[in-house]
Design a protein that fits this description.
By secondary structure, the protein is an alpha+beta fold. Helices cover about 25% and strands about 20% of the residues.
Length: about 80
């Protein structure tokens, strides 16, 4: 039987269990944009050009989106 690595939330570090409804955020370094999708819908194998982050639910996905907006604002204020 194959062993699977434990998956934890990249925001709160909660361990993934079967009953959780996880989301994955997908970004590509150097490009603007973020996508959220159900973990079950995330491609396998994952594209090495993209950054995938696991989120245990809406709360942690919202925290990640807020951080993305802060990064985007910083990018545009740095260029002014």
């Amino acid at each position: 039987m194959a062993e699977f690595a434990a998956i934890t939330c990249d925001e709160c570090h909660t361990l993934k269990r079967e009953t959780n409804h996880w989301l994955v955020s997908v970004t590509r370094p150097g490009f603007e944009g973020i996508i959220f999708q159900p973990a079950e819908a995330t491609e396998s194998p994952r594209n090495p050009l993209f950054l995938y982050e696991n989120h245990c639910g809406d709360r942690c996905a919202t925290i990640r989106f807020s951080r993305y907006l802060d990064e985007l604002k910083a990018l545009f204020t740095a260029t002014e």
